[in-house]
From TrEMBL:
Family, per entry: Belongs to the TBCC family.
PROSITE patterns in the record: C_CAP_COFACTOR_C
Protein name: C-CAP/cofactor C-like domain-containing protein
Quaternary context: Supercomplex made of cofactors A to E. Cofactors A and D function by capturing and stabilizing tubulin in a quasi-native conformation. Cofactor E binds to the cofactor D-tubulin complex; interaction with cofactor C then causes the release of tubulin polypeptides that are committed to the native state.
GO cellular component terms listed in the entry, alphabetical order: cytoplasm
Main location: cytoplasm
Metal-binding is among the record's keywords: no
GO biological process terms on file: post-chaperonin tubulin folding pathway; tubulin complex assembly
Domain of life: Eukaryota
Species in which this protein is naturally found: Galerina marginata (strain CBS 339.88)
A Pfam entry, by short name: TBCC_N
Length: 236
């Protein structure tokens, strides 16, 4: 620092500190007053502005460290004046009350019952031109068409669980055919024979297949397109 700046710094420092001290004293006095008039606060602002201008004019002529410290001191004084002005500002005696908003009506939820789906028509099982004719659970009997339950003219035949029986379902002789009732005529679509023991089965020609299962020492006479069998036990 040259001699001129050093000389200015030596004279500026006590002047600035005197201005700062005087301003602090005025602020302290104003704070002790219950309600300082606006003129007092305005005078404090003017004094702060003079000190700020003086420091700005001294820029470059005083040490940088000193200038930084003086700026911090002025900032503190400025804050004190701002707080004092805020504490003495007149409070409004009246305030427009904000009309409370009516609570929004809750949205009405209308539940509409789901449209009833049209009822699907009940599926009708396909009609069959044949039904099953069952001949089962006999022992030591001679069975003919007269022993059969009521049945349509065309049907599948199921024979099961017979022991020591003769089943004769051959049609009547030609000479007696004219006197045979219509419901005694029998057209067999397919044969299902199961679990027969020591039986003789005499059948007319059938239109479909013959399925034979679990037969022991049996004789079966028939005409058919196909025979499928399993577990057949023949006499030695």
């Amino acid at each position: 620092m040259d001699t001129a700046n050093w000389t200015f710094s030596q004279s500026f420092t006590p002047q600035f500190q005197a201005m700062r001290s005087d301003l602090e004293s005025q602020i302290s006095t104003a704070k002790s007053t219950a309600s300082p008039p606006p003129e007092i606060i305005q005078g404090l602002s003017v004094s702060l502005a003079k000190a700020t201008k003086a420091l700005a004019d001294a820029t470059g002529s005083i040490p940088s460290y000193d200038q930084k410290q003086y700026e911090i001191q002025l900032k503190a004084l400025e804050k004190s004046i701002t707080d004092l002005r805020a504490s003495t500002a007149p409070k409004s005696k009246f305030a427009f009350k904000r009309k409370p908003q009516a609570p929004a009506a809750a949205p009405t939820t209308t539940t509409t019952p789901p449209a009833k789906a049209p009822e699907a028509p009940t599926p009708t099982p396909p009609s069959s031109s044949t039904t099953n004719l069952i001949l089962s659970s006999h022992t030591n009997k001679y069975l003919t068409r007269s022993d059969l339950p009521d049945h349509p003219q065309q049907t599948d035949l199921s024979i099961s669980d017979l022991s020591n029986c003769i089943v004769n379902l051959l049609p009547p002789s030609a000479s007696a055919s004219t006197s045979t009732p219509t419901d005694e005529r029998l057209i067999i679509s397919a044969l299902h024979a199961r679990n027969l023991t020591n039986c003789v089965i005499l059948l007319p020609s059938i239109q479909g297949s013959a399925l034979l299962h679990d037969l022991t020492q049996c004789i079966i006479v028939l005409g058919c397109h196909q025979v499928r069998s399993s577990h057949l036990f023949l006499p030695p």
